[in-house]
What we know:
Shape: globular
Distance between the termini: 20 Å
Number of helices: 4
Largest sheet: 2 strands, antiparallel
Radius of gyration: 15 Å
Helix content: 40-55%
Structural class: alpha+beta
Number of domains: 1
Strand order of the largest sheet: 1-2
Amino acid sequence: MLEGVLQVIESGADPEQGQRLKALARAVLTRTPTDFFRGRTDGEVFELVSSTFELLESTAPDGIGVRVAQRPGYGHTGAAAVAIRDRPFVVDTLHGLLSSQGFEIRNELHPIVVAQRDEAGPDARSR
């Protein structure tokens, strides 16, 4: 799956942003359980990486970024993403909040991505 996503990035992104997208794809996707990819196309996984990149890019270094989206064509299925400085119990707190609101959590991805920032935006690596 990673190679397919890297090819999608290569074919469409400008070179500078493409390198940053590839770094994020490697950081996130190499640590993602393989069953997460079942039924997803390279394009869908690219959209996940791309929207995560946009979330990181739009979140201030000490800020909190949140993105919630439905997965088109899959009924009431969606995703919540949070960009936040590493803090104790963040995942447990978010899991509890979503569960208390009646959401079923089918997949939980919790990569810790270290984003180095410069004038061009975030550059990611996995930790």
